[in-house]
Amino acid sequence: MLSARYLHLHEALGLGPMWLKRGAVVLPPKNTPATSVQARPQTVRSAPIRPSQPHNVQARLETMKALETAAVPTRKPVPETETPLPGVSDGIAPVPAASGITKLAVVSLCPPTEDMVYGQLFHGKAGVLLDNILKAVGLDAAYVHKTSWVKTAAVGNPMPSEQAIANALGQIARELDGCRAPAVLFLGQAFVQPERQTMIETLCGSRPFFIIDHPARLLRQPELKARNWQVLKQLKHALQAGGS
């Protein structure tokens, strides 16, 4: 005969009553009045065997470890103020003078990959530096027409083919004539190459033109700013002489 308290204690510890014999009888606790039900001996049935607590803990640890080491695809966070366009554009429209009056046209050879991803010409720090350069020569960006010679350069190719440059000559010529830019500032040493001089002279006609390094290169090599400033002083003088 066993005390019910003793039996419940073993059940609370997770031992279960399975070690008892089928004929074991449970006695009611002392000082408890016997009811008609308690007065009758109770036969304990065999309980199903459950896994012990240490086994459950080990299984959980193994599951957690498997989840922690599982490969989870990650993604780079997108800047909150700059959301790239889905896909990559194969052509970026020029940025006309916001004031409606063009005092200078700024021409790059083709949009870099970053501009094509964000769908904006002179995007990011390079664009900020360009606006600062314009301020240095006395020009507000609102009076500047910004564009690129080749607008459909292949992604990942910083230099369009000679054929693509030649094919775009007519389009950029019509664009400059349409915005009535009195002077042109070319960005990038690609315009300095001898094979492009005739093309540039044909494009500009009687308009004065100037060539400096692209702002993106000046960000990487700030020591080049001094030589570019010499050219910018010539541009500033030409704009003042023209009444801009």
UniProtKB/TrEMBL annotation:
TM region(s), chain numbering: none
Family annotation (InterPro entries): Uracil-DNA_glycosylase-like, Uracil-DNA_glycosylase-like_sf
A Pfam family per the record: UDG
Residues annotated as domain Uracil-DNA glycosylase-like: 103-228
The protein, known as: Putative uracil-DNA glycosylase
Gene3D superfamilies, sorted: Uracil-DNA glycosylase-like domain (3.40.470.10)
Organism: Neisseria lactamica
Polar residues composition-biased segments: 32-45
Region: Disordered, residue numbers: 31-53
